[in-house]
Amino acid sequence: MATGGGGGGGVRLPRNSGPCGRFSERRTGRQSFGYPPHHTSVSTQLNGQKDVKNKRGNQITIESLPLEVLLQTFSYLDTCSLLCAGCVCKRFYRVSNDNLIWYGLYSNCFKFKGKLWKPKAVESVTESFSTISIQDKPAGHWKRAFIQKCIGVGRRGVEQLLKPINHFTGLPSKLKEAVRALEVTWKIVLQDRTGREHSLEQSKVFLSDTSATLYWYSALWPPLDSLKTLCLYGVTPFWNCRLRALSLLFEYELTHLENSSTYMRCDKLVRLQCLHPSILLGLWQDGRELAFIVANLHFHQLIEKSTLGSTICQYSPPSHEPVLDDIDPEYGLHGYYLHITLHSGQSCYMSGSFRSLFCKKGKNNYLFQRIPHLSSKKESQHSTISGKLCLPWNTEFLSGKHCCFMDVTVLDEAEKPFWCVSSPVAVYESSTSATRYDYLGKSQTIDYSDSEGRVHMNLMWLEEERQYYLVNLVLYLSTEKVNSWFATKY
């Protein structure tokens, strides 16, 4: 868990009124803290200032202070000051991870309640807890336990907000309220080849029913050729203080951008490159430097991913345990639900859902399903898409034409999220389109694919009506994903 500057709400923490554990008794008289008293003295006054030196002639610095002095001092700090002190230097970091200090904070802040645990019982247990048993834990154990406990306390009310499900999208219906309650924001950190980090808070955020779209603008981006990695973090306020907790969502390599990204679209000013699955880079055509960055994050487990990870590790969800079924010979091939949305972050172009989908064995290790409600031969089943597909980023005059964001949510027969993804997609003219006499327009396609699934859409653009028609939609699911999810062997 890492921290940065900021503010927020949460648990009101007691200030450390005094040292804890083995430092609970104040020392009186001259103390040497393990060093003989004759090792130190005060030198003569030079130029009106006292120069404190030991008899060996070395000036006393933080590095030369005995460990006992630092532990005694740190035991008086409150929680926020203790976390800040750990960012000063390596030695302060090691001292600020002392298990005895954090165990005292933990036991003082989170007292057990119930018939078996009373305040007196807690005090007796704390007193009987030997110093050796506390220090047997790895360094920082009680610090991590303290932080995780505080995060859990802050999430208690939010978990209730995540329970109601929107039956149209298959996602939590009050996720926007949960994001606001936790005061979650997102930031990007660009690291150059020298190790220097450039951090930027979100400029804008738009929350739809299925995803969050984040924008970052800056006039002083670091040179693109000097960048090594791009990290996206969820940021959560850490109690009523200036600290914040970071949770890693994605990390992308920028060293070989042409190989690690996909070209989307361009105009006279901006070229769009996609870092799969969720990041869109806007590069100036003149010089190929950064113009803006956009992220599109699917709502599925977004709260967990943005709060329960660390600065170096992503949140790892619990592994799915398949429910076995020996009766149904086509178990795992039917009962799917698809919700798909095309949007620009600020406005929605198309939103539709399809129930009772079933799969057939396809090629290239995919089980595919053609959406029965969208037959290319039945014009009455075709649906319209509002307006032109584009991605406005700062002004309506600068926008990426023929591209948008796609949110895909696939639920299994038990209405559990099976495949969820949000990603930028581009519209391309179809190279193998057959002649259609019912539409006098251009045939275009939208494709997205990853290791778990694929979506293929056929669109018809009618110039007279200035809008798209969705005439065909095919959903592909990975055979490996299906077998892993349902414990089958297709």
Automatic annotation (TrEMBL):
Residues 1-20, 28-50 are annotated as: Disordered. Residues 59-105 form the F-box domain. GO terms for cellular component: SCF ubiquitin ligase complex. Gene3D superfamilies: 1.20.1280.50. Pfam families: F-box-like. Residues 1-11 have a biased composition (Gly residues). PANTHER family: F-BOX ONLY PROTEIN 15. It comes from Callorhinchus milii (Ghost shark). This is F-box protein 15. The lineage of its organism: Eukaryota, Metazoa, Chordata, Craniata, Vertebrata. InterPro entries: F-box-like_dom_sf, F-box_dom.
